[in-house]
Amino acid sequence: MQSSLEKLRKFFRLEAENGYNDSAIIGGLAKMLDYWESDARNDGLKEETIQAVAGRLRDYSRLSPESRKVTLLGIWNRVKKEHPEVGDKETNQTKPQPASTPPEPPTQEVGSAPQPESPPQQKDAPKPKPAHRPAPARSESTPGAQSSQIPVALNASLTVLQGVGPRNAKTLEQLGLYTLEDMLYNFPRRYDDYSQLKPIKSLWYGEVVTVIGTVQSVTGRPIRGGKSHITEVVIGDGTGALRLSWFNQPWLTNRFKQGLAISVSGKIDQYLGRLVMNSPDWELVETENLHTNRIVPIYPLTAKITQKWLRTLMNQVINYWAPKLTDHLPESVRYAAKVPSLNTAILNIHFPETQDHLRLARERLAFDEIFFLQMGVLRQKRDWQSVTARIFDVPDEWLKSRTDALPFTLTSVQQKAVSDIVMDFGSGRPMNRLLQGDVGSGKTVVAAMAVEVIAHANAQSAVMAPTSILAEQHYRSLSQMLTNGEGGLSAEKIRLLIGDTPEAEKEEIRTGLADGSIKVVVGTHALIEGPVQFTDLQLAIVDEQHRFGVEQRSALREKGENLHLLVMTATPIPRSLALTVHGDLDISVMDEMPEGRQPIETHVLKPRERERAYTMIRAQVLDGRQAFIIYPLVEESEKIEARAAVKEHESLQAEVFRKLNVGLLHGRMKPAEKDEAMEKFRAKEYDILVATTVVEVGVDVPNATVMLIEGADRFGLAQLHQLRGRVGRGLEQSHCLLIPTNDDDTENERLLAMAESNDGFVLAERDLQQRGPGEFLGTRQSGYGSGLRMASITDLPLIEKARERAQALFGEDANLEKEEHKLLGEALDRFWGGSKGDVS
Ligand code: ADP
Ligand code: MG
């Protein structure tokens, strides 16, 4: 059949399945005319047919569903008359069918699920033909058949497929594919778009591309005096040649043969003026795809199966099952969100005909994820709010006397945050609050006030921080604050518990927490690792919460019963994102800095201008100020990082700052040594602290006014902003000097962004645009990322849309008890795998 008719058939069928709601194509069915008319002419369709189709489809959106059905049937009959080759066999199933068609009895394919697993409903289904496992093909499908039996059949194991015996099934299991449903959701890793391949001659340096070519030469040889090995392959595509190299994979040399067609994906680099690709992903090309001129899905593979075999299998499954899926998203939601049906989305995520279809399919599947995420988060919030918590009343005068005792006046946003917390304490419901404020906005003192309230009522608090340096600092400042004045705690009621606390002392602390003699414990993840038990933990605080995983945060929460929880972060994220990601929490935003702060002046210097940085440091020290000098992670190794810092420290002290005191702090030092170094810096015994990123979070030495970051191009934007936040914490003008590894890196976008803005929010937005949310959100740690395969949490419009929909549905039927929400409820449970929406 001509491809234009094929398309017509496909969209008509989708439209029928969707109940003639004009959603088979986004923007309406009439949109297909944009390209269909010319396709049809290319196919040699009669002009009258084309005009008849176009004429009737044009006003399609204005028709009622009933008239739409009539229209499509009419068009199809007309097409059939003019082009009998579309034939009856096909029209049987392509003929638009009324959406109200009662579920047809399961066909033989449904019955082909393995006997023992066959659900009772299938009892009267025709018996499967035992010897012949049908390879479901689209031409056999029955579009009207949507019934609740189908999800059950989707549980069928893969051996129901033709060509999959027990052995292949085992292999597929290695890919996490056990059932037909797993197959539907086995999304391609990427696509080769053969309609848009880039010829080698038009590649640009820096581009990330997929290129196809044939192997022209292969060499493998040792380099660096035999310490490493390089495989070099040159491929050509008729327009030019491209050199590829792989390191230390000597076996590759034998994998490439001259004349072999391969596709390589990666970043185009430059070496001695020529374009190269280093360690690209590569794959053998199935030559027939080259000519199909379409978008070909590439699936994750495992040993023993080929792309082609898996793709053929996927094709069978998708074509047959995708149209039969019952959409778990209620019509009303899908309408309001304007996303395609699940059938269309699953079909097009695997075998899209155009990039546009692929985009829409992605959008639908991404919508589902965010929607599920949001539903889970709302459910979590409701559950948390449904229990009671101890009430802590905070008398106004007492609170005032405590704030008056602080060395400064709280900013209005700090006051607001404190009063939010006080309100939560008095609510009888557990507090679940996120305190969000940029680096240096003064979150610690707010947390300290909360701890003080709880300690005053003789209950216990735990404060968890991501590094021992930060835990130590919190411990000191809390001790100072809480032991101060009349009615203050005695010092032994506040303790520090970190990984390196001596075992005997740990034991003592555990005992004190269990018998209630210790009221406040500050620490690292050591707080949750050991068998620490509290008699009466009422408040848990997690500082720099994005540094912890979901499990760690909930482990702390589990140490008490319905306790009050405060999590703090400097991660500035857009509101709609915050509401989704942290939707289970109430949020207090501190968007105002303490008075008298001056914006930090940030400069990017070339490596050869380093001396200027040193001059500035000397001048500041002469003025009584102090400086940090940060050395970067050279490789993913703390050891090497430490060594670099040690070496630099030596030469800085011996050569550059001979008359000044230069301290050293790195991750490989013992906690006691770290503590001593921090203390000496705090006490101004050191003028300069040479450090690694161990000072990145939380460290607070307000007298430090210079932050010099070496190898600054190696840091992420969020990290740079955090590091810079170590200065500018007092009233003095502070400076941040960024020196990249090479002169050219002074144009590095992140460094320029740093020089331009001091505002964490602005930088976060930039970072989101440039690289996705990973670092600012700490997605890797926070767990919810694992549920998101399609959705990018940078897609704010989509997030907003999904959030609004979820909220509306939650308001209408929170427990998804209505009949039309049942399927959604099941899908939601699957998404969360039994856990609640505890994402923050
Ligand atoms: P962060 O929000 O980054 O955790 P901190 O709580 O460490 O910030 O506070 C940064 C610095 O600001 C600290 O030195 C703290 O003592 C100081 N500070 C906090 N609140 C105020 C205030 N209201 N006025 C002046 N200084 C403040
Ligand atoms: Mg802090």
Question: Your description of this structure?
Answer:
The chain is an alpha/beta fold and 840 residues long. Among the domains are: 1-99, no CATH class; 196-293, Nucleic acid-binding proteins (OB fold (Dihydrolipoamide Acetyltransferase, E2P)), CATH 2.40.50.140; 396-427 and 442-569, Rossmann fold; 601-757, 3-Layer(aba) Sandwich (Rossmann fold). 42% of the residues lie in helices and 15% in strands. It is built from 33 helices and 21 strands. Strands 11-12-10-13-14-9-15 form a seven-stranded parallel sheet, sandwiched between helices. A six-stranded parallel sheet has the order 16-21-20-17-19-18, with helices on both faces. Strand 2 (208-223) and strand 3 (228-236) form a beta hairpin. Helix 3 packs antiparallel against helix 4. The protein is globular and about 95 Å long. The protein starts with a helix and ends in an 8-residue tail after the last helix. Mean pLDDT is 82; it is low at 88-150, 773-786 and 836-840. Magnesium ion (MG) binds next to helix 18.
